[in-house]
Every structure is written in structure tokens, then in C-alpha cells.
Structures
1.
Amino acid sequence: MTGDRRLKLGGFAVVLVIALALPFLFGAYQVGQFTLVLCYAIAVLGLNLLVGYGGLISLGHGAFFALGAYTSAILIDKADVAPLATVPVAAAVCFAAGLLLGLPALRIRGLYLALVTLAVAIAVPQLIKRFDALTGGTQGLNVPRPTTPSWVPLADDQFLYFLTLAFAIVMFVLAANLVRGRIGRALAAMRESEAAAKATGVNLARLKTGAFAVSALYAGVGGSLYVFSIGFVAPESFTLTISFAFLAAVVVGGLGTIGGAIFGALFIEFVPVYASDVNEALAGVIYGAVLIAFMFALRDGVMGLLRQIAQALTTKEGRDERETAVRLAGGDRRRGAAPSGGMRA
Amino acid sequence: MERLIQTLVDGVATGSLYGALALAVVLIFRTSGIVNFAQGEMAMFSTFAAWGLLEAGLPVGLAILATLGLSLLGGMVIERVLMRPFEGGDHLTLAIVTLGLFILVNSGAGWIWGFENRSFPSIFPDDTIGVGGVDVPLESVGIVVLLLAVVGVLYLFFQRTKLGLALRAVSVNPESSRLSGISVGRTLMVGWGIAALVGALAGALIAPRLFLDVNFMGGVLIYSFAAATLGGFDSPLGAIVGGWIIGVTEDLATTYVDFIGSDLKILVPLVIILVVLLVRPAGLFGTREVTRV
């Protein structure tokens, strides 16, 4: 595992250096886009905990993203709460909502979670419009963004970016720890075989509901930070499209990976921007095609691809460390065989 | 009283349409264990194809008939090309693939036909018949009768034909079916074709009551899922009865509960799904799932 672990830490360091350098290399507009990427990445990571690690599917993470966003927006707009203080509130509200919705939906089969969350995702814009006294209805709410403290030598867009980055790093580290420990192993066991997991003492109902609630919490934090960077919420931002985009991001990044969320978030932020130049419908066509094509040929997503490349490189360089090379190649074979074997089973 | 009867009749007619799409969902679920999230969008695509034929000058009945044939073929092609490589795969993979199909079909239709609202003519005359002092729209009666006819034909098909028997066999046990000489893949292909056809019929009957646009089946799909959940996901009869209950509940709720109105009626199927899952997870007519370890 030491070789694998070294790869992961190396990858983390590279991403961190790039992330720290970005706001000094691009203009204000692009920095704003990267801030959004970070918000999406947190939500996508949460969805991946559920889908990739737990094997459960949610089509309604846009709804939790919206719930987090509106919790922050309403608290800031109606109650004059300091922006940063609304993030934990949004997280708690989404966690509770996840528990409530997960209890009935997860009792039977994971599949029903998909149905219930799809219904919720479709209902969200309607609900927002119905309670317009609170949410501002179709008009939406304008929310003041967090102000840059005077002692910080950064432009507003750079400050917002680093603020979001700080949250993102905390959420990513927490998730990485979560999946490495007892809970991560329980999730993996459940994904592979519910019966076997149950037999080894995993409390399925509690694990599923907990995983769903935590994953909703992540989406809520992402949504809350999204309000800071956009400064505006409206029902049109939270249609079914965003829930589908999150799922596409999970698949593109790689099911059951931590770092994949970043690539997925980059994908869903930048693909629609360029695709809309060609045709309004192109982004959707790409999302749909990508979901099917990745399931067909690239189940482990971008992360899987990167892992393969990194392993090929390290085996070539570390030829003297024969042991490591052999172990990595063995690990590679196992990884390659698992999906196709699972598909035929 | 008159208002109540009219609401009930309307509810049953709307519910028949939810039931029709639910039937399509159940047909695929029974034979292949897949919940086809794209069922509604496939129906939407078919309805747009019918609209295209109308624009080309075909009379409405003929346009719909031609579309039903095309949908049968289309459903078979989708099974063969997209679903076959994943046959017997895990739930997550299958769900993601049908979701991909959902988005692909939705955006593809938007690309081809645009995102505007269009109106779609009804095949039934715009007239009412008086039953006991209540004016019942002929369209509502027509929809219910047509749906019952479809169910009757499907029943005969499943019970009295060799292909229907093969479909039932595959739904019970694909392995044994294959051993007794049934081509499972080809049978599933037929199942998808029939489901697409039933869905297309539902789409063509729903479109006149709403506007035809690329998202018009999104809401309907949720009602159909509620109908299928209520009726039991593996029961065709349950899909129809579930559809009726959902349709009537929806119409009663929007007419008599002010809080719900027309804005929040999307909550009706959601609440019904949640209540069914809490109280009777197998639905009214479904079989309880038993897992062999």
C-alpha cells in the first residue's frame, strides 16, 4: 500500500499547488468560475460517497444543493446572519432533511431512493415558487456576498476563492478519512453484497440512512458556498438539470474516488459554457452520452485513467524496486478484472 | 355533487394515462429487473415524432399508428444497442445507463424539435355526453376504453401466445429460460419494444391535455412511478389500478385542498410513494421480494 499511498499524497500535493496558484494566474471572471467548481466539487464528492462507495443512487442532490443555498440566502437576507455562520446551519438542515427522506426510502431497496429523490428534484422549483414570501419566488433573492476583511491583501474574487477552497479542503480531508476507516469498509461491503454485509454485522438501515444524510450535508455545504460566489438564488438554478449534472460529474470523475469530484466539477462547469455556443441542447447530449459511454468503457472515470497512467510510470521508474512493481501490476490486474466480472455475475 | 362526479371522471381518465406509462415501466421491470428512468422521455420522443408526421400532413389517427410502429422498433433497437451490453449488470450500472438515456433523449428532442410549447390534437371529438345529469367529456371516456382495450390485448398476448409465454418465463428465471431454448436477449428486445409502444400511446393521449414540449413527460413519469409503487412494481394490473388511484387523488387534492392548488400537486405522488414505502412496501398487488443468499 505504501506505493499507492505515496501516489495519492503526490496527487493531492500537485492538485493543492495548482489550486493555490490559480487565482493569481487568471482574471476575476475565471477565478469566479473556479470558485463555482469548488462548490460543485463538494456536492459531487458528497454524491460520490453515496453512489460510488455505497452503491445507492440519488437523483435529487440538486434539491439538497438548493436547500443549502436557500438556507444561507434566507438567513443572510431575512435575519442578517453573518454569511460564514450560515454554512454550519445549512449543513445541519440538509443532514436532517437527508435523514427524514432516507428513512422511508431506504427501508426496502436502494432503487426506491432513486425514485423518491427524482420526485423531490422535480418538486423543488415548484416548492420554491410556492413559498415565495420566504424565498422570493421566481424573482429570487439577492444576497450580499461575504466582504473581504481589510487586513487581507486580496481582491474580492480571490478572497472568495480561498474561502471556498478552505472549506473544500476540510470537506475533502474529512471524506478521505471517512472512507478509509470502518464506515468506508462497511459501505464497500454493502455495495458488493448486502446479504454478506448484514451477516458480518453491518447495520444496513443505519448505514444507508447515515450515508444519505452525510451526502446531503455535503450538497448543502456546496449550495451554501454557491450563494457566496453567485450572490443570488432563483428557482431556475435548481431544476432537474443540476441533479443530473452532479451524477454525470460523479461518473466522469470516477465512481468511488475522492479526487474524482474535482474533475467532475470541472466537467460540469466548463462543458455547458462551451457547449451552449453550439446548441442549447448540446450540454445535455454530452452528459447523457458520457454517462452511457463511461459505464461502457471507462467505469473508473478520469481517476481510474490517471491511476493507470501513474502506475505505468512508477513501475518504469522504480524498476529497481522490483517488489513494488510486481505488487502494483498485480493490483492493476485485479482492478481491471473487477468491473467486467461484476457485470457478468 | 356534480363537481365531485366530474372530478372523479377526470381523475380516472388522467389516472388511466399515468397507468399506461406505469404499465410500460412495469413491463420492463418484470422482464429485466430494470427501472427504466427513460420511459417517459422515450414516450415524449415518440409523441414529437407523431407531431412531426402531423406537420407533414398525415391525419392524426394515422400519424399515431405509424408512431406506435416506429416506437416498437425504436424500443427494440435501444434494448439491442444500449441495454444488451449491460444485461444482468448491477442495479447501479443499469440505473446510470437508463438515466443517461433519459438525458440523451430529452436533449436530443430539444436539438431536433426545439424547446417551444406545441399543441397536439386529440384523436377524440371535443364533445361531451350526459350521464345522469353530468357532462362527461368524450375524451375521458375514450381514454379509459382505449386503455382497457390495450390491457386486454396485452393480457391475451401474455397468456395465449408463445412469445408472451417466453416473456413470462424470462421474467421468472432467465437462466432456466435460456436452458429451455428461449433466446433471452431477443425476448427482452420484444419486451422493450412493447413497453415503448405502450409509452408512445400514453404520450400521444397525454399531449393534448398538456402542451407538448421536451419536458412534458417529466412530471407524468413521477406520477407513473407513484402508480407503479402503489400497485406493486411487478404487477401490470397494479399499475392500472395504481394509476386510477393516483389520478383521482391528484384531482381531488387540487380541487378541494386549497393549500395544494395547482402549484404543489407534484407533491401528491411524492407523498404517496413515501406512504406506500412506509406502510406496504410491496404495493397493493406486488409480490414481496425474497432474497436467496
2.
Amino acid sequence: MQSGDRGSGDLIERLRAGAQAHRRPQKTRKCPNEDRLRLLLPGQIDPEEADRLLTHAAGCDWCGTVLREAAQDLTDPPTGEEEELAGKARLTDPVRRRELAERIVTRRKQTGDGPWLAIWRWWPAAGLAAVGTAVASLVFQMGWLGGVPAAERLTCLAYAEHRELAMRLMACAAYAPIHTERGTGSSRMIRPDLLDAEARVARGAETHPNDPAWLRLQGRADLLDGKDDPAIAELERARALRPKDAYILSDLGMAYFQKAERTHDPQLQALAFERLSEGARLKGNDPALLFNRALAAESLYAYTEARDDWEAYLRIDSSSGWAQEARQHLDGVKKNLSGSGSMPLPPPQTR
Amino acid sequence: MSGETDAEDRAGLAFEVAEAPWAPRAGEEAPEALLRECSDLRHTQAWERFLRRFNPVIVATVVRTLRRYGFDHAGLSDDLAQEVYLKFAANRARVLREFKPMYPGAVFGYLRVIAANVVHDYFKSKLGRHPEQAPLPQDVAGKDELEWQLLLRDIDDLLKKPPTSERDRQIFWLYYRQGMSAKEIAALASLNLSIKGVESVIVRLNQMIRSAFENGER
């Protein structure tokens, strides 16, 4: 049937009826983060991203539904029943409100001015300025140096507790199978591990705002929380301060990879591969870097490089859960190289 | 088209209508100022005022979102409302610091979206669930559907041509394909259109498409 045969007739009605009859709300890999979609309502998304999100939602029955329901929920005024429930809520009690307000402020104090700063301020006043400064400085340094590994361990725990990323965190050995359902940023209630890590990192980053080690952990915490844009910004800042740090390069490669997964942007995939390769040049036998670079190579359809990295990985780790994942990937890559695989072929070259 | 874009006309939008019960009373500080004061996490009293002022809107949002998942449990809504406040305070109150006041009253819409997101994330992470959706049709694309898809493609080809803008094309499909009303589309502050503005876009594109089909351009 030629499209011109259809005439105008009741075409708008047919369009509307078809949209109802053939609706297929199905989430795909291309669907954006739903939290971001909902932020279109109060206009808190930058224009470029808003344009991308709206174009996607207009043509995707899943995201269109998310947006429509959010618009309904947030535009219809509260019903009498909802107002009544709000009136009976726990926090209508002023005592409970005060308790929660105190908890919020106290928590900030706990994660903000640490005890070392108090010591720093008090000792000179007691007439022990010289000794005090030296001791406090030493204690402060030790606390700080001890702080980065401790905070890093918390990020490893948060990662392993609920692994949502395909790639591995460097210096985190424990294996965890990947979760297919991705939390999108505000799942604190069921992720106390991530909450702890973020609190510890926030405390360190606040007292050491220009320290690349804390910046890296801040970026890592954001990455674990599903926020790839702030993660990239923080990790790029860390990289600018310390360009030859394999840990920063690895986390940055992961952040680019995550964003590329979300946006399907081949330039970001290439950036991820580049940063991970820089890291691998600095720490050639690090298992996480090999693992991650192999994944980045696969995303770029660079199957030969991916095969080499998987094989190199399996030479240094042949028995862990990671090794099992690596073996599965290697099998797929090999099949693809021999032409019998099911992996996607490279997209056609465009000029 | 003049008159479609009008930030001031947003005063008539449902966001403001919905917030009316919580609009500032005489002598109360502007909600944006309260947000700023709370964002440095130093003032217990400011947070108490914040909780008193915004708790009704937060709880109402949590309750409504919970119902999408078939839950209607006061204890859970209280727990989730508390999680919303912890979300506001997390990462040195980043959520509060990142707020950009785009139009009067936008703060209420923003806090409601964050509250709704906390509830959705709770169910996604805890139960791996999305709100109830109609089951997918069992049949693969039949003749009707193929014809409809051809119609979609033809219309979309028209909409991709100048002078139709990408924004207008988005609005057309949000309306006809996603079933959003003009009021719901106008609530998308990112589009910065009044309800009349959205309706005007729909009518104009409707006429353009009918005319193109009648003239045999498709």
C-alpha cells in the first residue's frame, strides 16, 4: 500500500485509536533514567538534555507512560483523603519534627568539622602552640591518610553489596554478581552501605576539597549512586590535579563507560577506552583495569583487543567469580571473531 | 508562534494550582529562601520550618505515588517521607543546592518530584517493580498495526520538515501517541509553554497534517 493512498479522512482519529490499541510499554536499554525524566516537570534539566529526553519519551511507550503518570500525579491537586493522611503524618507532631531537624543538622556536624579541627583550634590556645601544631598536624595527617583507604573500603563494600556496574572498581577484589535492576539515585533506605560510604567521602572531601584522592572517591560515590555526570566532573578534576594516577583513570573510564551505556554515545565509549588504556599503561597487570578495558573494547567492537585483554586477565585470575565472567566474555568475543557469535556487528561507517 | 511561550502564563498551570494550599502565607519567608537556608545544614530551626512547611506536600506526594504500586499504608508513607528528607540532606544537601528557581513556585514541583523519585526508587530496588502496566498484547504486529505504523511514519516525516520545530514535534507525539493532555504537557516546565500554547501547537500541526494529506503530499 502506498502511503499516499491513505488520504486524510479521519487520519488523526486513526492515529489516536492506533496509539491506544498498539501501545507497547516496554523498557529498553535506550530508555533514560526515569528520575531524570520526571525532573522535566519542574524544569530542572538543562535544555540540551531536556530535548533528548523529550524526543525519546515522545516515541517510547514506556517513558511516555512514566512522564504521563508523573505529570498526572504532580499536576492534579491533592484529594481530600490525601490531605487528611498528610494531616495525620508522623511529622505533624512538632516534637518529631524537631528530632528530625536535629538529626539532620547533627549529621552534618558529624560529617563536617571533624575532631581533628577542634584539636587544631584548641591546643594553641592552651599555650602549646608549637607542640600542639606539630602533634595535631601529625594526627591530622594520619587521620587523613587512614581516611582515604577506609572510605575506599566503604565504596568497595557498597559496590559489592549491590553491584550495578558491569565494570570493576580498582582495589576492590570481592566478587559480586551484577544486579539487573538499577537503582537510580535515591535508594538510600535499602542501601545503608552506600549511605555510609557517601557520608565518609563527603566528610573527607569537605575537609580536603582539592585533594585528588578524595575527589576520586567523591566521583566513585556518585558513580555508585548512578550519577555519571557529576562523577565525570569530579574525576576529571582529580585527573587534572594528578594525571598519572591509574586509580583515577580507571574510575574515570568507568564513569565514561556508564554514561556511554546510558546515552549510546560512541565518543564516550572511545573516551572510556582511552582513559582505561592510559591507566593500563601505568599499571599493566591490574586485574580491574584489564577487565574494564576488555569491556570497553567490546563496546567499541574492537574484538581483537577485547580478546587480548580477557586472555591477559585470565592469566592472572583464573578461579574467581570475575574470572568466570571474563571466560564468558572471552567465549563470546572468540565466537564473534570467527563469525559465529551473536554479538552485534559494528555499525556501518558514516562520514 | 507568538503567545505560545509565556513563562508568566505558567501561573495558571496545574503546578501552581496544586500548590495553592501550601502557598506562602503573609509574613512567611519565600520557599526559595528557606531552601537556601536549609542547604548549609547548620540551622535546626530552619529545618523545623522546612519540615512544617513542606511536610504536607511531601506526604501527599508519597501517598499518591505509593498508590501507583497498590500500597496504602500509613507507616510506610511516614518512613518514606523521612527518607525523602534524608535525601534532601545527603551529600551536603546537594538536592537543595542544585535547585534552580525557574518560575515562581517551582520549588514545590521540584520537591514533589524528588519525593516521588524516592518512592519509585524504593520499589524498583526493593521489589524490582514498576507501577502496574496493562499487559502487552500477545499478537505480533498485525495488518492494522502495520498500517498504523506507516501512518506514524508518514506523519513523522511531515513533522521533521521545516518550519515545524523539534519542540512542536515532541508536543504532537506526547499528545497523540503518549496520550498526555495539554494540561499535562504544559506542566513540563522544560517546554515553557502555557496550556493555551500547547493547544495552539496541536491545532496548528493538526491542520498542517490534514492539509498535506488532502493535497496528496503524502
